[in-house]
Amino acid sequence: MNVTLKLFATFRTGRFTVETREYVQGKTVRDVIEELSLPEDDIGATLINGIHVEEECELKDADTLSIFPLVGGG
Amino acid sequence: MEKLRDFLRTQADGDLIAWQQQVSAAGSFGMTLSEVEGVILEMGLLPARYQRNRKTISTGQQLRIFRSHVAVIGCGGLGGYIIEELTRLGVGRITAVDPDVFEEHNLNRQLLSSTENLGQSKVEAAYLRAAKLNPAVILYPMKIAFGRLNGLELLQGVDIIVDALDSIPVRLELSEVSTALNVPMVHGAIGGWYGQVATQLPGEETMRKIYNRSIDGKGIEKGLGNPSFTPAVIASLQVAEVCKLILGMGTPLNNRTLHINLLDMEFDEIKY
Asked: How far is B190 from chain A (nearest CA, A)?
């Protein structure tokens, strides 16, 4: 299955902005976070097709997964 | 009071009252500048300082802004710009909360800081700034760390809460207090080239949704710091939200978060 990955803000640095990757069934949001070496503590929002999802959520063919970092300064 | 009204009518240029006349009225009638501003607006006259607002904000709306009470929690990067804009907008009462004093590393971005007030409390600087810009605005300086325990007392009676904090756990406490007080909260957060804004109306749980993964209480700002322009952008978006909430105009940024990326100049909305 093909999944489009969209990264935001600092997560783009050294990675990419948008990329489509081929995965086998059963791939979860957490698997992608680990595959991309995104620091767990910095994860803000994870969305599939614009809807908030938990990291355990499994991806489906043609999904778009967006990952935003946490921002907390003032 | 009728004598004051007569005085103001005779001094009005069209429907505008010059600042000098407002000061003169306060002195002659033993009233505060804030009290005189209230009378001017209630008469349907407009303090001349707001004349460039009037095609966007009517005199009646200016009165609603004057009668509102907004709390700004945090007087650093975001808070300094927020207080500046609320004061110029003519918000009648502003409660400013921050326990800290200015340090040299604040100078790159915190509007209220200067080489002359290093070591001064941030809320005192806010008070002095408001008094200089718009003395008709009453600013209550609260040199105290906001928390769940003092929050209800500190923010009792305010109409809108503005989040200008730099700590995620304290933001979540602020959200609890805003819910308990049934008051809208306008959230802003920054880090490097990035920021986010959201409005949480009473009963909504946007803050908990934004920060449900937070572990150590900091985001990307811990590795990025904050340049001068990011707080100015996010703070201005927050004040626009405050103005809309006071006036019941437009579409509030509720049940969604606006993510701002100034490096790639992208604005993305996340819906809940």
From this structure: 5
DSSP secondary structure string, chain B? Answer: -HHHHHHHHHH-BTTEE-HHHHHHHHHHHT--HHHHHHHHHHTT-EEGGGTTTTTTS-HHHHHHHHT-EEEEE--SHHHHHHHHHHHHHT-SEEEEE---B--GGGTTT-TT--TT-TTSBHHHHHHHHHHHH-TTSEEEEE-S---HHHHHHHHTT-SEEEE--S-HHHHHHHHHHHHHHT--EEEEEEETTEEEEEEE-TT--HHHHHTTT-SSS--THHHH---SHHHHHHHHHHHHHHHHHHHT-S---BSEEEEEETTTTEEEEEE-
From chain B, the residues in CB contact with A70 under 8 A are: 168, 211, 213-214, 218-220
Give per-residue pLDDT as tens, A25-70.
Answer: 999 999 999 999 999 889 999 999 998 899 999 999 999 999 999 9
Q: Are residues B12 and B131 in the same domain?
A: no
CATH superfamily, with its number, for domain A2-69: Beta-grasp domain (3.10.20.30)
ipTM of this complex prediction, to 2 decimal places:
0.90
Which chain B residue is nearest to residue A39, measuring alpha carbons? B220
Over range B95-104, report the average pLDDT: 98
Residue-wise pLDDT for B206-230, tens only, equals: 999 999 877 667 888 888 999 999 9
Please say which residue of B12, B38, B59 terminates a domain: B59
Structural domain count, chain B: 2
B155 and B82 fall within a common domain: yes
